[in-house]
Design brief:
Blueprint lengths: L5 H22 L10 E6 L5 H9 L5 E7 L18 H5 L1
Parallel strand pairs: 1-2
Helix pairs in contact: 1-2
């Protein structure tokens, strides 16, 4: 997952999306009910770099969840990932 220059490449590719998300979230009022916080869905997330960057940068008082969706991730409760799917063991090292 972490190859030389990979994180810099991923950050460069998703920087405009990060800026847009930060601008949008900054304009949102902080909800009084925590259940009314925003949910961000990262479609075609791949390994989830965008979601990881946003999770570190966005205000948790305004964002409740960042969901990663990609055909390479196994379906919810699918059990052991298939050989062509992303495996959590690769993410966690």
């Amino acid at each position: 997952v972490v190859k030389s220059g990979r994180i810099a490449k991923e950050l460069n590719e998703c920087a405009p999306v990060i800026q847009h998300a930060m601008d949008r979230v900054a304009k949102m009022p902080t909800p009084t009910d925590p259940d009314e916080r925003a949910t961000i869905i990262d479609l075609c997330s791949g390994f989830g770099y965008l979601g990881m960057f946003l999770a570190e940068m966005l205000d948790p008082a305004k964002v409740k969840l960042i969901a990663l969706v990609d055909k390479q991730w196994p379906m919810f409760n699918a059990g052991v990932p298939k050989s062509h799917q992303i495996n959590w063991d690769h993410v966690y090292g």
